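Predict structure. Chain length: 160.
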Amino acid sequence: MKRKKISDILILGIGNVLMGDEGIGAFIAQFLEKQNLPPGVTVLDGGTGGFHLLETFQNADCVILIDATINGQPPASWERLQPKYSSDYPPTLTAHDIGLKDMLDAAQLLGKMPKVVLYAISIASINSVKFGLSPELEAIIPVIGNEILNEVHDLLDASV
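Prediction complete.
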């Protein structure tokens, strides 16, 4: 079977930067926006997610999601997942959880689901209002950012 050529990659950072570590996805998106990205790669700070992102999400060949999770792991732990359905995503308990999962389910139901890769970053808790990240999460921004850049190049190279 021939693989579909990947030419449009959306890097989508999810999170509320006004809620401390919960905003890690948005902060990594901001880091990636400053990098020299190949043609066809778009970085978007998706805020708290939701249906307003559905069309942008569906128009990509591949979406790399970056989001916080409350999963009992030490803060700044992270994992790369390839979930197929919203039920495959780790628990987040964040303010945007329902909107993001609903958008993913809608894309699946509409039959326009791109390849999805999720970078889930563990946080300890959600702050009610706090701008900025804890030192542990601040330190992993370039680590995860560079990992995502490598993945982007691998995806583009593998699809030619």
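Summary: The beta strands are 9-13, 41-45, 62-69, 78-81, 115-122.
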